[in-house]
């Protein structure tokens, strides 16, 4: 494997700050649990920003960024998705032109949106670029991953390149909040396989309907994923598992999480696929968990199991069945409320 240079992520938790925060909320609330999950988010933000005791007014979420990583997956050749692979390109172009739920909510909440071509299976430039309003960052590792039923989805070189690309994207973004989303036909298959192999969850519990499979299609998806698991049964190391059964966008999100955490930025994690990236990031650097805020719990059954395994609570639960960062934007008002409560305390 080529040399991998991962950033150092230090633990965010400060024992002194834990006590100060406890005293703050104790003095302003009827009882400790009055604010429920919002209190936990407020505490996490204070730790991430390393706020000195008794100076809580300096907690500030500035220039929030939403980065949507796009890629295609070779396993789609096996019929695991209800949509053709071309749908990835169409969704990306829709976003680049400023349309759809992601852009609407981003405008509402003041997020800058960037789309990263991590590995879309077609050209997006130059013909499409002149009609876009959202920045497209070209970090293409390949034109979709390989079919993991037949061979490894990514080579070791591609895995390292994708991790480094995700890190580089974050380095060049302003602000102290990075929200991560994804788009790509077949991505839930990769997420389910990473859940099975990294967490020991049975495939039947991890494999869901994705973007709307019917019963017969779900059966095919389960059978195909079983074949992929069998082919890559010797993959046990986190990076080896990622390369065998992951995707370019997942690998880039891993790199993005680690880089953002190393810079003490808050990372808002979207749905099932982004949380799969969090599983890998935690395996590589456990301290990264201090910086991850999990936006929501999706309708995909495996997502609930991921969150249980990570021992985290999502901000909201609205049974979403899409990525593209929409969940992070819907959770944002509560995260901002947590920031305000720290400052008001």
UniProtKB/TrEMBL annotation:
Its EC number is 2.4.2.21. InterPro entries: Nict_dMeBzImd_PRibTrfase, Nict_dMeBzImd_PRibTrfase_bact, Nict_dMeBzImd_PRibTrfase_N, Nict_dMeBzImd_PRibTrfase_sf. GO terms for biological process: cobalamin biosynthetic process. Keywords: Cobalamin biosynthesis, Glycosyltransferase, Transferase. It is an enzyme of class 2 (transferase). CDD domains: DMB-PRT_CobT. Signal peptide: none annotated. Pathway: Nucleoside biosynthesis; alpha-ribazole biosynthesis; alpha-ribazole from 5,6-dimethylbenzimidazole: step 1/2. GO terms for molecular function: nicotinate-nucleotide-dimethylbenzimidazole phosphoribosyltransferase activity. NCBIfam families: cobT_DBIPRT (TIGR03160), PRK00105.1 (NF000996). PANTHER family: NICOTINATE-NUCLEOTIDE--DIMETHYLBENZIMIDAZOLE PHOSPHORIBOSYLTRANSFERASE. Belongs to the CobT family. This is Nicotinate-nucleotide--dimethylbenzimidazole phosphoribosyltransferase. It comes from Hydrogenophaga crassostreae.
């Amino acid at each position: 494997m080529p040399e991998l240079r991962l950033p150092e992520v230090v633990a965010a938790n400060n024992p002194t700050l834990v006590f100060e925060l406890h005293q703050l909320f104790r003095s302003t609330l009827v009882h400790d649990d009055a604010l429920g999950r919002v209190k936990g988010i407020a505490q996490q933000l204070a730790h991430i920003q390393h706020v000195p005791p008794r100076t809580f007014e300096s907690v500030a979420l500035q220039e929030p960024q939403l980065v949507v990583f796009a890629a295609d997956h070779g396993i789609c050749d096996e019929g695991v998705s209800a949509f053709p692979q071309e749908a990835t390109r169409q969704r990306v172009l829709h976003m680049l032109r400023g349309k759809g739920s992601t852009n609407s909510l981003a405008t509402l909440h003041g997020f800058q949106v960037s789309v990263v071509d991590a590995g879309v299976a077609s050209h997006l430039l130059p013909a499409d670029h002149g009609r876009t309003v959202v920045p497209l960052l070209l970090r293409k590792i390949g034109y979709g991953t390989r079919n993991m039923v037949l061979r490894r989805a990514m080579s070791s070189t591609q895995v390292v390149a994708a991790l480094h690309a995700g890190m580089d994207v974050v380095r060049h973004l302003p602000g102290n909040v990075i929200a991560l989303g994804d788009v790509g036909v077949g991505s839930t298959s990769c997420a389910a396989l990473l859940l099975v192999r990294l967490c020991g969850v049975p495939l039947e519990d991890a494999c869901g309907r994705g973007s709307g499979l019917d019963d017969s299609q779900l059966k095919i998806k389960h059978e195909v994923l079983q074949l992929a698991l069998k082919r890559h049964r010797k993959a046990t190391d986190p990076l080896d598992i990622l390369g065998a059964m992951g995707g370019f966008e997942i690998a880039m999100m891993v790199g993005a999480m680690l880089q953002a955490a190393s810079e003490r930025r808050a990372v808002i994690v979207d749905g099932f696929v982004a949380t799969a990236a969090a599983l890998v990031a935690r395996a590589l650097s456990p301290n990264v968990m201090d910086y991850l805020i999990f936006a929501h719990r999706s309708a995909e059954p495996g997502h609930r199991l991921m969150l249980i395994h990570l021992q985290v609570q999502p901000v909201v639960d609205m049974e979403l069945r899409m990525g593209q960062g929409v969940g992070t934007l819907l959770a944002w008002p509560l995260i901002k409320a947590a920031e305000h409560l720290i400052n008001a305390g």
